[in-house]
Amino acid sequence: MNYNLTRVNIANASAGIGFKEAPRDVEVVVTGFGIVDRPDKDTGEIKKISIIAAEDGAIYSGDSVVMAGRLEDIYDAVSDFESGDAPLKVVGYFADIKCSKGSATTFVVKDFIE
Length: 114
Prior knowledge:
By secondary structure, the protein is an alpha+beta fold.
């Protein structure tokens, strides 16, 4: 799944900011996001890496199952709202949530803009 991620965004994902280190409750304008499959360097197991590209040039990434599910939900929402030729931008913020493992990071959508 890829929504307006560039090859450069994907290439820089491993050098991105981890979701746990992302700023909390700070508005982020997302220009692209997606999930790519990458082999684990140690085990060879294929992992789903979630990537968020921000308008300010920051790349956020990680192998969070919670974030992968969240990006799939956002993709569905963007697909429902998309109307023009230019991709929509997603405005939102990173937040902590409780989960079975203790806590996780999610992305809360505030708005979609052209």
